[in-house]
Amino acid sequence: MSAGEASKQVHKQRQYPRKPIKTNVYYQYNNVRLNRIYAGSGHTVNLSMKGALIRIENYLPPRAEVELYITMKDGKEVSTLSQVIHCHRVAYNVYEVGVQFLRVGKSKQAAL
Fold it and tell me: How many domains does one find in the chain?
């Protein structure tokens, strides 16, 4: 099986399929070890009911908990506590970060 075929198979098996949605995202990350709060913005690359791939300018460490504020197409903002699953540099000062949503209000899940 080629790498492309394997990738397609993984996407077919997802319980919550990702949709290619580009929208603004703002995040806050509280680094307890350094006693600092980091904040920034970027955009989503794709989105599902349980997570997202976002593109931002800063590295976020795996397992870090971040508060995300996602602007939906109707202009409303959905906030969610999320955990960083992976973070990869894709260009100079550009990182793709996979996050899993830990807490999203039931009323806000429909917006996702």
Answer: 1
